[in-house]
Request: fold
Amino acid sequence: MTCSRPALEPKCHAFSWLSVQEFMTFTSQLIVERSAKGSRASVKEQEYLCHVYVRNDSLAGVVIADSEYPSRVAFTLLEKVLDEFSKQVDRIEWPIGSPASIHYTALDGHLSRYQNPREADPMTKVQAELDETKIILHNTMESLLERGEKLDDLVSKSEVLGTQSKAFYKTARKQNSCCAIM
Reply:
């Protein structure tokens, strides 16, 4: 299984004779062959990451995505697809099957759903919401600090005004004390 986010067109100089589909198939097969049973790995190929999951029963899947796509979400997708696939397709067909002979219709739905990792994965959605909340909180704290500085300025100005008014009062009292009312 290979999937990618929309508009993935690898610019592959070493394999320029391959179509995109052939490149993805070749890379996926190579990565699966080099991965141990029961393992998960992410392999960087140019600006893309190939996420591979090989189950203990040798069923494997690969997601090819850009480097911004979260690895955890890619592995969640692989686990769901492989679990569903293993329940729907007879194990005898796994090694000899091809996309033409094996009918697994749920893949398109999963690929469509997982195009936006925030919507597909609750943890990613929560993390994004936490990041947004953190930014809002940071901005609020900056505003409060600015207000605090403004309040400090007002307090110091009022202290200066208080001192000046006392000095004015004393001066006025001295000047008014020279003249007695009779």
